[in-house]
Amino acid sequence: MTGRWPPTPRPRPGCRAVSACIELEFIARAKRLGLSLDQIRSLVDGWRQDDCRLTRDQLAASVRARLADVRHLVAELIVFRDQLDDVHRGLAGAAGPARCRPGCGCEIDVSRIDLDPSRILALLSVKRQTNGASQPTDN
Predict the structure, then answer these.
(1) How far apart are CA 116 and CA 73, in angstroms?
(2) For 133, which of 7, 81, 83, 128 could close a Cys bridge (C-beta 3.0–4.6 Å)?
(3) Which of 67, 66, 69, 47 is nearest to 56 (CA)?
(4) pTM of the model as a whole
(5) How confident is the model at residue 130 (pLDDT cuts 50, 70, 90)?
(6) Using CA atoms, how far apart are residues 31 and 43, in angstroms rounded to an integer?
(7) Could you count the other beta carbons within 10 Å of the beta carbon of residue 40?
(8) d(CA 36, CA 34)
């Protein structure tokens, strides 16, 4: 450099200041991890105080908790998959009668299905978020 100030980074369109853009990118990354708005708010507070150790510790704890949730959900989904396989095998067996009626095989014993549908929807919202198909939901 020849006596000049280093160039000031220009904010992206829609951002008034570079620091605001960096903060928004930090928030977007936290959302992509599936963190709740309360968790993100707490992380941003630490970010704004320039306390990297605190922010990293909070982020690690939040990710650890999210990872435990995902592992639990994966275990539930494996059980659910096996239950759906059983139902499918029952439906794919011998052809049913020409018309539906009690005992025709279309009456599925849902008491065998253990996964709460709201948990499936929660999983799908995370999947859509990572695929960019929709906005993430608050966890």
Answers:
(1) 11
(2) 128
(3) 47
(4) 0.59
(5) very low
(6) 11
(7) 21
(8) 7
What CA–CA distances, in Å, run from 106 to 42, 86, 91, 111, 113?
50, 14, 7, 14, 15
Candidates 47, 114, 64; CA nearest to 86 is 114
Q: What is the pLDDT of residue 49?
A: 84
SS3 labels along 72-112: HHHHHHHHHHHHHHHHHHHHHCCCCCCCCCCCCCCCCCHHH
- Helix then strand count (H, E) for the chain reads 4, 0
Consecutive H or E run containing 19: helix 18-32
> In whole angstroms, what is the distance from residue 115 CA to residue 73 CA?
9
Nearest CA among 72, 75, 70, 42 for reference residue 57:
42
- Describe the crossing of helices 117-131 and 18-32 by its angle, rounded to 10 degrees: 140
| CA distance readout (Å), 81 to 78, 85, 108 | 5, 6, 15
Q: Are 76 and 115 in contact (CB under 8 A)?
A: yes
